[in-house]
Amino acid sequence: MSPAIVMTFIYAVLSMVGGVIGYQKAGSKPSLISGVITGVLLLIAGVGLLQAAVWGSWLAIAVSLLLVITFIIRLIKTRKFMPAGLMVIVGVATLIALFPLI
User: What is the protein's major site of localization (predicted)?
Assistant: First the structure.
């Protein structure tokens, strides 16, 4: 399994778990909804990558880029590493793994 596929699945799980934790700790429904939606989209992208479908890499890049931008903005606003900093680091690592597939 390629690093791009592994990183996409890791980012998917991290996104979903983060959404659930955000809901449990702060009662944030937007965190839950966005975490689950982006996580599912990344899982779908990962399946596409497993099947060597071009759309899988583009979907993974689009969702990862959206998450990285969102969490950079959040990191700047809150200046708290968790969870924004972690999501930025994993997102950038995912994008780096995905770019050779384009």
Answer: membrane
Q: Crossing angle, helix 29-50 and helix 54-78, to 10 degrees?
A: 150
Structural domain span for residue 30? 3-101
- For position 102, what pLDDT does the model report? 78
**What's the pLDDT tens digit per position in 8-42?**
999 999 999 999 999 999 999 999 999 999 999 99
Split at pLDDT 50, 70, 90, the class of 101 is confident
Q: Per the structure, how many domains does the chain have?
A: 1
d(CA 101, CA 85): 25
**Contacts (Cβ under 8 Å, ≥6 apart) of 17:** 35
